[in-house]
Design a protein that fits this description.
single chain; 591 residues; alpha/beta; Rossmann fold; 3 domains; nine-stranded mixed β-sheet; 18 strands; 15% strand; globular; hydrolase; Alpha/beta hydrolase
């Protein structure tokens, strides 16, 4: 699904839709020029402007050229399904309406056919391959609208880079790594047993597979894992094995309406493509938390009656660990109420320009009949939400209802659930004990088990995923910090407490993925969040993005200056050359 939604973003970036073999009429304000598709191909491949494009030279920038060059090589067996996901997405009609403002001569049927045909070509799906596939002799294109879209995406990218830099510098700590006789990231002493159970929920007609990891000496809370959309119960397999090796029982749930089988089984018949269909059934926003509550009920029975599992399932003390849509699942169970009234207001005004996949996905819930929904389960006493999808699902302040301890993991380069709207703003709302891990440069799938990531989720244009060996240090940190967080509910809390700190997190930093850890956002970041509080998750105007970007750059530059000043003062004091009287005022008294 993320692949399909992100492909929609790719399609918002054309410089000029055109025709397969004939003329493109480009309009930019008062300028109008008829060009050939070959002119655009020449510009894309060489950077040279043919004579017919020279009038538009000032706006045909290198960024526009890079956009024309970008292509997506799809698995031939998956291409039709990915394109179908896009066209059947909750905002499919809005997508086509937006493209119609750029190329008003195109009908939705022509666009659908062109994208499908282009996706099957040997050279992959690109803007130029879509142009070649349009069966029309002449096409008029509003070049000004197309360039404006590219500019908006570039500004959003600049904003993301600036936010990464701000969090990197603002959360940098001088706290040393804890001195301890053990490392919670190291494998535990227990042998891990693993078994698959299938639990039938007859009341809801759902068959729920669960993977159980346990050891002979079981202790502490029960750990429940919830995967994201299009994934499965093995997405966090490495983490389940680690926690079980330390004596914790782990149960990883597979949600049948939103797992990899649900993604692969989406129907792509023409009837579905002609209406605003849901890739994700609205009912999944209710069924996922209810899956967890049902599984806890079943495990409680097994704990009482089964000689194999007796004493293994502490269902009255549960830590829910969820990724993406699984993060939503955990937060809902921890006490956040689903606010569908607020969500409908947001989604009714949503335009696909600059919209993240998370914003699209959350709007699938608007078909639910309720105005609100309380899905909380008092047995969930902790929550770990990795790259969670939150957005407007819980309303403007719904997450403030969560009082249980929470650990949020966020990647600054997450193009699926962007850190501003999906993690930072929600983290600021939480009322109970809370921690934030900011993975500088981290992407949506960086936390996943590299051997168990659905390949179709990685085929996202313009949103490269950093995973595998590049994220090995991050996964090692997550082993240690998650175990330490869970053990805050046990008699071992003091022993593991020092590992819930910035020093421990930073000890796992790499050049590609610096790690930052905090219990509270810096005041500068909170001010910036307030600036954007009415814009989270929604597409923003160019002016709004510029204001946000400039604000972030100002914060970052101020932080850098303060650090330089502190370093200079420390050096001067250490050298005994001067006594600092007032700083940052430049008043020094020589000894």
């Amino acid at each position: 699904m993320t692949a399909a939604l992100s492909l929609g973003i790719a399609l918002f970036q054309p410089t000029s839709p055109g025709v397969a073999a004939s003329r493109i009429v480009l309009r930019a304000g008062p300028l109008q020029q008829t060009v050939q598709l070959e002119d655009l191909e020449t510009f894309a491949s060489t950077g040279r402007l043919p004579d017919r494009l020279r009038a538009f030279g000032i706006i045909l920038t290198p960024e526009v050229r890079r956009t024309l060059q970008q292509r997506l090589n799809l698995d031939p067996q998956m291409s039709d399904r990915i394109i179908g996901d896009l066209l059947a997405s909750p905002n499919g009609e809005l997508l086509l309406d937006t493209l119609a403002t750029i190329a008003p001569d195109l009908t939705p049927e022509q666009l659908q056919a062109a994208v499908r045909l282009a996706a099957m070509q040997a050279d992959g799906l690109s803007l130029l391959s879509i142009l070649r596939a349009i069966p029309q002799e002449s096409l008029e294109v509003d070049l000004t609208a197309a360039i404006a879209l590219i500019s908006q995406f570039n500004l959003a990218s600049l904003e993301g880079q600036a936010l990464s830099s701000v969090l990197d510098h603002e959360l940098l700590s001088t706290e040393p790594a804890p001195l301890a006789l053990f490392d919670p990231a190291a494998p535990g002493p227990e042998r891990v047993f693993q078994r698959t159970l299938t639990l039938p929920d007859r009341a809801r007609a759902r068959l729920i597979p669960v993977e159980v990891y346990w050891s002979r000496e079981t202790q502490g809370p029960l750990i429940v894992l919830s995967h994201g959309f299009g994934a499965d119960r093995y997405f966090l397999n490495y983490l389940a094995e680690h926690l079980a090796s330390h004596g914790l029982t782990v149960v990883s749930i597979e949600h049948p309406g939103s797992d990899v089988d649900a993604l692969m089984g989406l129907a792509l018949d023409p009837e579905i493509l002609q209406r605003p269909s849901r890739i994700l059934p609205a009912s999944e926003f209710l069924d996922r938390p209810r899956d967890v509550s049902f599984v806890l009920d079943e495990l409680a029975e097994l704990d009482r009656r089964s000689p194999v599992y007796r004493g293994k399932f502490n269902t009255e003390q549960v830590t829910l660990i969820g990724h993406s849509l699984g993060g939503y699942t955990g937060l809902a169970l921890a006490g956040a109420r689903l606010d569908l009234r607020s969500l409908r207001e947001f989604c009714n005004n949503l335009q696909p320009l600059g919209t993240s996949p998370a914003a699209w996905l959350q709007c699938a819930a608007v078909d639910l009949p309720q105005q609100e929904a309380d899905l909380s389960d008092s047995r969930v006493t902790q929550v770990v939400a990795m790259n969670p999808l939150t957005g407007r699902l819980f309303g403007p302040q719904g997450l403030s209802q969560i009082t249980v301890p929470a650990l949020i993991v966020a990647g600054t380069q997450d193009g699926v659930t962007p850190i501003l709207s999906q993690q930072l703003a929600p983290f600021d709302q939480l009322s109970g004990p809370k921690y934030l891990t900011a993975v500088i440069g981290g992407t949506h799938l960086s936390v996943g088990d590299p051997n168990n990531v659905n390949p179709s989720l990685t085929q996202i244009p313009f949103m490269p995923e950093l995973q595998g060996e590049e994220a090995a240090s991050l996964r090692q940190f997550l082993r240690g910090v998650t175990l330490s967080f869970v053990n805050q509910q046990t008699a071992e809390a003091d022993r593991y407490g020092p590992f819930l700190g910035a020093g421990y997190a930073q000890s796992f930093s790499t050049a590609q993925l610096p790690l930052r850890f905090t219990a509270e956002l810096p005041s500068t970041v909170r001010v910036w969040l307030r600036l954007n509080q009415n814009l989270t998750g929604a597409p923003r105007s160019t002016a709004g993005l510029i204001v946000s970007w400039v604000h972030l750059e100002t914060i970052d530059n101020h932080t850098r200056l303060q650090r330089v000043q502190q370093q200079v003062v420390a050096h001067l004091q250490a050298s005994h050359a001067v006594t600092v009287l007032r700083w940052p005022l430049h008043t020094l008294a020589l000894r």
